[in-house]
Amino acid sequence: MRVLVVEDEPRLANNIADALRERCGFAVDWAATGTDGISMAEFQHYDLLVLDLMLPGTDGLAIVRHIRRRRDLTPILILTARDERETVVELLDAGADDYLTKPFDLGELLARCKASIRRGKGVAHPEISVGRISLNTIEQTVRCSGQLVDLSPTEYRLLEYMIFRPRAIVSARELLEHLYDYNWQHHSNVIEAHISNLRKKLRAAGEETSITTLRGRGYRLESPDPQVSPT
Amino acid sequence: MRHTSLSRQLIVGILLAELACVLLFAGVAILHEMHGRQRAFDVMLRGRADSMLGAIHDAEDTQDNVYVYSSELVLPKHDLWEVRTPAGHILGTSPGASPAAMTALGSMRTDGYVNLHVNGEGYRGIRYDGVRVIDRDEIPGGLRRPVTIFYASPTRDLWREALEAVRFYVLAGGLLLALTGIALIWFLRRRLAPLQELADVASHVSVRSWDFKPPATALQTAELAPIARSIDELLDGLHQAFERQRQLTGDAAHELKTSIAVLKSSLQLLSMNPRTPEQYQTGLDTLLTDTERMEQLAARMLALARLEEAPAEEGASADLALALRNVAARLSPIAEHKQITLEVGAGSPLVVALSSDDAETLCSNLIINALQHAAPSGQVTASLDRNVQIVTLTVVDDGEGIPPEALPHVFERFYRADRSRSRLSGGAGLGLSICKAIVERAGGTIQIASTLGAGTRVTASLAITLNSDDLREEKPEMRETVESFDPR
What we know:
The structure holds two protein chains of two kinds.
Chain A: E1 2-6, H1 10-24, E2 27-31, H2 34-41, E3 48-52, H3 60-69, E4 76-80, H4 85-94, E5 98-101, H5 106-120, E6 127-130, E7 133-136, E8 141-144, E9 147-149, H6 153-163, E10 169-170, H7 172-179, H8 188-204, E11 211-214, E12 218-221
Parallel strand pairs in A: 1-2, 1-3, 3-4, 4-5
Antiparallel strand pairs in A: 6-7, 7-8, 8-9, 10-12, 11-12
Helix pairs in contact in A: 1-5, 2-3, 6-8
Chain B: H1 6-54, E1 56-58, E2 66-68, E3 80-84, E4 90-93, H2 99-106, E5 112-118, E6 121-134, E7 143-154, H3 156-191, H4 193-203, H5 216-219, H6 225-272, H7 277-309, E8 318-319, H8 320-337, E9 341-345, E10 351-352, H9 356-373, E11 379-387, E12 390-397, H10 419-424, H11 431-441, E13 445-451, E14 455-463, H12 468-484
Parallel strand pairs in B: 9-11
Antiparallel strand pairs in B: 1-2, 3-4, 3-7, 5-6, 6-7, 8-10, 11-12, 12-14, 13-14
Helix pairs in contact in B: 1-3, 6-7, 7-11, 8-9, 9-11
């Protein structure tokens, strides 16, 4: 998952980014101004936007309006130092999904970020299952028939991204865009290597469902049971 | 406090004036009426006296005496009369008259009309010398018998009749008074309605609702329009000041909350995962920096509040040149560290109405600001110039300058042209606001000019306070300055 943090206070942005990387394994980009935030959000690489309300250039509310006007459905979480009711109502009405007032609890921020991403992908529960695989987004663990599968952080992130969209074709480019931030050098063959490792580990755990490669188009998480259901 | 009602005063005033008019009119009317009636009365008296003369008859005796043949006279019974011969012989007198009345009647010494008082009653009398000619048939030319006629009539009826004649006017005046009173109350209520409306609208203004629309009726009234407009302007000004204050409180809260959010998230991040001692040390160092910045923010907010709330200190004075030298000495390590040349031009003492703390804060805020924005290995110049009674502190840097659109806002609190950059250098957007507050509190002015890519110049102008002590001290110093600028 890739998150954009638009926050003018560098120390705070840094803390949020570090927490999202460390605790959730997300790729995080940072924009210090509203104007930068808008141009970065327009790529639609992000699975969540975390916006400060008071920003130089364009303020948070204007960014929300801009993004929603473009029919971009990326979940938006607003950070605000103002907890006046009108502001909150205005924000939610403009299309923001959630808000937190500063100073916030970092743990709560992470939980709300994860919840927003899940809901943005149409899943309500933090534990997602496909076939015999079940993925716990809180513990960041994967089990196959109840048995823990040992995955590297990147492999986990790959599976997490794909498990939200079973049976859909996900291109290598999309995976790159959603799993790595701007600081990372893009090499599409890295994805191929990680997919191959993930496939091997799942097979070793005895899972029949597998990730198939569709040459030139991408990857697909195959599942005997198309139903995605929380356990 | 007792309320005075303008409309009540107006009504009472007008009614009193009207009453005075009515009374004056009635008085004049009575006088006029009395004058006319008195003349008529006098003519009547004369007529009656004449008829008295006519009633004098020849007594047909040997001395050719005369007498008053009163039985053929028809006179009002309250009238008094007497007829005498020049010798004082009474020829006739009114029947039933009291002796007192007769004495009063006889007291008339000359011909003409006289007002008499008999037994407390007013009479008007006439004394008139007439000549009765008798025996015109027997003697040619007749016999002339001079007589003096005294005649008086009571004037009581005269007054009564005059009053009755005037009563109509008095009644009409009273009625008019009552009618105008009622009409005035109604009229004033109606005419003063715009005032009431204005008061109503104004009374609905509060801190929560600043809406004030002067009623059209008030704006159309010449006397009310200026008041309505003044209220409108006053409220506008107040509203803006209030909004500004609210904005500032909001900004201050935002700054504080953000600072706390930084601290809190740093702490939580540090405790989220197990870390190595080195990582903890780095985290703690960062936290300490964050805390120091918050401390500075709080100190600056308090300084600004103190400057803006408290009145200027009486008799505060500081040597701006000394302050500038002190600050420059303190800041030169920072300048050196940044490899910026800091040039200071401060010579003879220039005493201004600032406390020495404020003078140093002013200098240091301006220089720190310039150091932060100066170009790498650039130059910052701080100098003092004296122009008669004004000292100008100029701080110039050769940095990237301030965009024209940001320039008007740089003195606003919490304004940062480039937030992320100034944040890194520890600014909270209060430094220039504090400078402005210091300078303006001492009655000076502060200005900023900037060219993008060329640098920024801040100019603070303050009046030099000169008391006799300063003068004595300054004179030799001035000479010294002149010498030091000698071209030789």
